[in-house]
Amino acid sequence: MKVQIFIPCFVDQLYPETAFNMIKVLEKATCEVHYNTNQTCCGQPAFNAGFWDEAKAVCSKFLKDFEGADYIVAPSASCVGFVRNYYSKLFENSSQHNQVKDMSKRIFEFTEFLTDVLKIDNFDAVLPVKATYHDSCAALRECKIKTGPRTLLSHVKGLELVEMNDVETCCGFGGSFAVKYDAISIGMADQKVRNAMDTGADLIISTDLSCLMHLDGYIKGHQLPIKTMHIADVLASGW
Length: 239
Description:
- The protein is built from 13 helices and 8 strands.
- The chain is α/β, with parallel strands linked by helices.
- The chain folds into 2 domains: about 120 residues, Rossmann fold, CATH 3.40.50; about 120 residues, Rossmann fold (3-Layer(aba) Sandwich).
- A 4-stranded parallel sheet has the order 2-1-3-4, with helices on both faces. The chain has a 4-stranded parallel sheet with strand order 6-5-7-8, sandwiched between helices.
- Strand 7, helix 12 and strand 8 form a beta-alpha-beta unit.
- The longest helix has 17 residues.
- The protein is globular.
- About 40% of the residues are buried.
- The mean pLDDT is about 95.
């Protein structure tokens, strides 16, 4: 199966190892992985900041870069959710409307591609740790992802998964929200991390590095005994 991967800006710049681990898992699932080096951004930052004209230019490039791909897979529910749910607003009543509609059916967040398209939930990963899972807002609310990541984690040898209280509550990142309303954002991160720690977990796992980056910053700033890890890194562990 041919797959084009989309690597979000912050993953490319800050967490490239997660992108490589995603490729490892996809190749283990016998996917033929391709990477278009012309790709840039999905356009979400500009859109969320209110610069819709600028966002549309970036989104048009995204449509062109991934034109004709059978499947587009990204390690970010945030980017996938944006393409699926907001491109239609940007390109409403335009000549690209049908192109957008078609792309929304071909783009998938990494874990949902594994469980819903490939129908694989066991990658023989090994990670002996007690962990808790964070539902990102984008995964849960925009991509409707809930059980898939937990199913994948249930097959990781040695991993004990425990649920935290208020697991569906936002971590407080929200992109520019964390900058505009930093005090509220930090308070929400504190609540999320405390709920995670109350489970006795050593690790917080999620589909979205934006959330994990925010939580990791809070954790390191307060020198707390818990770490974060993207699910692609978990699934690539031990082999």
